[in-house]
Amino acid sequence: MEKTKPDKIIVAFDLGTSHSGVAFQYAGNGGDDDRITVIKSWPGGHNLTSDEQAPPVKGTPFPDWLDEKHLKAELKKRGKSGVDIVADFLIKLHTFAMGEISKKFSPVFVETTPLEYILTVPAIWSDSAKRATLRAAEIAVIVVDVPLLSEPEAAAVEALSAMKAENVQEGDVFVVCDAGGGTVDLITYEFETLTPLRFREVVPGSGGSCGAYSLNVGFEELVRKRLGLLNFCKIRRQQPKTWATALQYFEQYVKRNFNPAHEDSEYDDCGFSVPFPGFPDSEKAGISFGFLSLSQEEVAGIFNPVVDEVLGLVKGQVSASKAAGHTPNCLILVGGFGQSEYLFDRIKQRLNGIDNNAMSCIQAIHAWTACLRGAVLRGMAGMELVTSRKARLHHGVICCERFVEGKHDPKDKSWSKL
Q1: SUPFAM superfamilies under this entry (predicted)?
Q2: What is the pTM (predicted TM-score) of this model?
């Protein structure tokens, strides 16, 4: 007798640091990765779709108070908490997602079919941040049926599921590096069984705030130094589209095409010309005819500190895995930043330096949306695909502490023999 397929729609939300995304699938269609629908047409996307996450809305004025120094005061003035802000965002995200789901299925089908929500968050978020996310989801009437998934775990589910058809054996060990916009997270798994697909965590995951957004910060610092602080602040306030245009070009072209080691790179000799409309020609600032010139060396100066931090995380994760007696076979690079050819090449070079056996490195097919797809697959499985994890923290109870006058009862005081 054929097992009855679950009647529900899995909806996954990837709440990233710099971008967010939504994907869904009807469970009755089975666990085929090709049937997963990733929402690609977003407001502000100008009908340009890709396998990326929700794009930023271009031309939106950048508020002066949007920095940590003034943010708390502004939230207090508006009567909003951080949880309220995230809830407002989730409401908009959920409303748009439901509209897209209703296009895929009939409204009656959507109304009568249970929805199961899965949320993913960066692995380095604290427990308090995760609890706050769940509170925001509750306010947005998004009932989370399973615990929050860490982004690298969700990405690992998708990447390792895709590798199942390749020459993979039980006992093989893989490091998954989820290089996103705000954070880079690494996690190492061993294939326990291939049918059904199950894997276990080998060593505790690691991560850091060295995602692609750090490149934007470096670019901003370079431009601020070129223009001078006063001119830069003036441009940001009086000509916000000038900076928005420059940053958009840096995002879409410089970050994605910079790879001086590539033989076919058209930017090797001339560097990059970043549109900077509305700013007068300035030899000192390197601006001519509305373009700001960036040399290869300058772009490398933006990339290298960030990439070096990622390489340190990779080395630490691989070394920890080897110390635990599990030598990784391969590193799988996922996430938006994971599509950078420069990062990819640098990681391959580092892996060759760590291990003379040349541990391989591959880029996931759906690098941008691996996290979303993995979250949906986790929901489709209806059970944990990861059989065991390594504890990040330990809880203890103080059994003996130093006596403090006024805090402790004198009758409980005793001398320690240690």
Answers
A1: Actin-like ATPase domain (SSF53067)
A2: 0.80
